[in-house]
Write a structure and sequence with these properties.
223 residues; Rhomboid-like fold; two-stranded antiparallel ribbon; 8 helices; 4% strand
């Protein structure tokens, strides 16, 4: 019979801090670099679109056309001019950064869920013969994720951040309703719904991980 010494307890567990309830990214510098890099990518794509004779915006989501399904992948990277991109820049930077509170890996998962589901929603219900582009659907998804994650996690700090964000960007909520025919409320709506779904998925994953940690918690192992 062999008794192994107790396993070291991670700092987050020993200090009682739940990683799922973080308000800011565990590595703010890395998160800021990722958010900035994504935003720079959007500007580079728009610059290429302006310089090249080809109209890259036609690679967006073409509603209910099989040939337009690949636009689900490209639409968030494309914008209908600099003004469109400028209007998305600050929300993209802020929401992307805060959405990395659970780590960059979880942020990638959340972003992928929002990116794909919001795009498919646009493809299904956008008006015929319309091409939809822009990162606003993803931005709405991140915002919705930030607004509801605290409820799923029962985290007071995250709920407080949600209230602050809602106070600052409450005007964005009008984008969920039909209005300006040149604005894709469909993308905003499905982005927001996808963000809520992503928050639920991540919360379930965190709870499952927490249960496994408790069940197989640190201690001695005898064989």
């Amino acid at each position: 019979m062999t008794t192994l010494p107790p396993q070291p307890v991670p700092a987050s567990e020993s200090s009682g801090t739940d990683p799922a309830k973080r308000v800011l990214p565990p590595s703010p510098k890395a998160a800021a670099i990722v958010a900035l890099a994504f935003t720079v990518l959007l500007y580079l794509v728009e610059l290429v679109d302006v310089v090249l004779p080809a109209d890259l915006d036609q690679g967006g989501i073409l509603a209910r056309d099989v040939s337009g399904l690949d636009g689900v992948l490209w639409a968030p990277l494309l914008h209908a001019g600099w003004g469109h991109l400028f209007s998305n820049t600050v929300p993209v930077l802020v929401f992307a950064f805060l959405a990395m509170a659970s780590g960059i890996g979880r942020w990638v998962l959340v972003t992928a869920i929002i990116w794909v589901l919001s795009g498919l929603g646009v493809w299904l219900i956008a008006p015929d013969d319309t091409v939809t582009v822009g990162a606003s659907g993803v931005a709405f998804g991140w915002l919705a994720f930030l607004l509801v994650r605290g409820i799923f996690n029962r985290a007071a700090g995250q709920i407080l951040v949600a209230v602050l964000l809602l106070g600052i960007w409450s005007g964005m909520l009008w984008g969920l309703l039909p209005g300006d025919p040149g604005v894709s409320w469909q993308g905003h709506l499905f982005g927001a719904l996808s963000g809520v779904f992503a928050a639920w998925v991540v919360a379930r994953m965190d709870k499952t991980r927490a249960r496994k940690t408790v069940a197989g918690g640190p201690g001695s192992l005898a064989v």
